[in-house]
Amino acid sequence: MVKIEEAIQQKEFKDPYNKVVVNLLYTNSFLVTSQNALFKPYGISPEQYNVLRILRGQNGVPTTVSSIQERMLNKMSNASRLIEKLKLKGFVKRSECPNDRRQVDVLITEKGLKILTELQLKVEKGNKMFVHLNIDEVNQLNDLLDKLRG
Amino acid sequence: MVKIEEAIQQKEFKDPYNKVVVNLLYTNSFLVTSQNALFKPYGISPEQYNVLRILRGQNGVPTTVSSIQERMLNKMSNASRLIEKLKLKGFVKRSECPNDRRQVDVLITEKGLKILTELQLKVEKGNKMFVHLNIDEVNQLNDLLDKLRG
DNA sequence: TAGATTTACATGTATATACATTAAATACAA
DNA sequence: TTGTATTTAATGTATATACATGTAAATCTA
User: Fold this and answer.
1) CB-based contacts of A47, cutoff 8 Å, min separation 6
2) Sequence spans of domains, chain B
3) pLDDT (tens digit, 0 to 9) for every residue of chain A, 150 residues total?
4) Which positions 130-149 of A are in contact with B (Cβ < 8 Å)?
5) Rounded CA gap, A43 and A50, in Å?
């Protein structure tokens, strides 16, 4: 195990709160690097994969862009342009929402479902490999992260 | 407390390992958004602040670009260009390393030290505010993150 | 209902990230 | 020593992020 102090060669932190913020940022970067490598060969980004999962979860019910935005992991990223990218790859369809012409309905295509299935097992295995914790520790970590956000 | 399932409106996860990966990504985005807001008025990014802290920790001993790169929180970001930005703002000095002319020595300036001091208290308070955990929980979380990375 | 406000999405723009390539200096090996 | 490999930093480039602005449609309000 490499403690955060060792990983970034910092002798000590002001207090555990400041340390945990740095630890989160560092661990996230570690995770994102690993995820990028996994997704790269498929020409899709981690957040694009996440959006496809959101759409599949809808079971054929169309979803608006703003609803996708709210559920994205990175709240600041641009759902509109991300969906455009997915459309260019043929993974989603867009259509004007009939009741409200401002809104846009987004649906996952067969091709989108196919790549999701293709990727899913790899991602799930990758995640398990990445997290060097036993089941009790993972549950604990999930609880602490939920609590941390308040 | 908002559980991750509620935050991103996902009913359930394949297993706690996949859940914790999503939880980390989501919590990180939450944190980065909060940090950006704090740093914005000072015209400096969180990673730039971090590099200034690394340099201050050197106590006047110059550091090479690659050594800074290794210690950055985001391993993939570009130390060379980040240092260029800090130099333009007058927060660091760059000079050719005498023993190895490939390397570049980086030093924090008085102005850099000044903005660090100015920001530090705000950042420390911000971090404490951000992390809704008691001291035991924060220590636990630090240990779990260290262990997670293996 | 006319005009103002709000909402939904798209677009513009500056910067950051991810990753490949280049250029110069050094180390190494025949 | 001379050519090759490696290291260090800078640069090029495509995409992503962060945030502001624009545009059209819907809603509110007087």
Assistant:
1) A72, A73, A74, A77, A82
2) 1-42, 44-128
3) 999 999 999 999 999 999 999 999 999 999 999 999 999 999 999 999 999 999 999 999 999 999 999 999 998 899 999 999 999 999 999 999 999 999 999 999 999 999 999 999 999 999 999 999 999 999 999 999 999 999
4) 130-133, 135, 137-142, 144-149
5) 14
Q: Which CATH number fits domain B44-128: 3.40.50.720, 1.10.10.10, 3.30.70.3550, 1.10.1040.10?
A: 1.10.10.10
Tell me the H-state helices in chain A. Answer: 4-7, 16-39, 46-57, 65-71, 79-88, 110-130, 135-148
Determine the Cα–Cα distance for residues B73 and B114; give it in Å rounded to an integer. Answer: 22
Q: What is the pLDDT of residues A108-146, one digit of tens each?
A: 999 999 999 999 999 999 999 999 999 999 999 999 999
Q: Which of B69, B42, B24, B60 is nearest to B123 (CA)?
A: B42
What SS3 string covers B15-31?
Answer: CHHHHHHHHHHHHHHHH
* Torsion of the alpha carbons at A117, A120, A122 and A126, rounded to the nearest 10: 180
Chain B: give the shortest CA distance to residue A57, in Å: 8
Q: What is the pTM of this model?
A: 0.94
- A78 CB within 8 Å of a chain B CB: no
Task: Provide the residue type at B140 as one letter.
Answer: Q
How far apart are the C-alpha atoms of A45 and A74, rounded to whole Å? 12
| Nearest-neighbour CA in chain B from A135: distance (Å) | 7
pLDDT in tens, B2-32: 999 999 999 999 999 999 999 999 999 999 9
Distance CA A51, CA A45 (A): 10
* Spatial contact of B136 and A140, defined as CB atoms under 8 Å apart: no
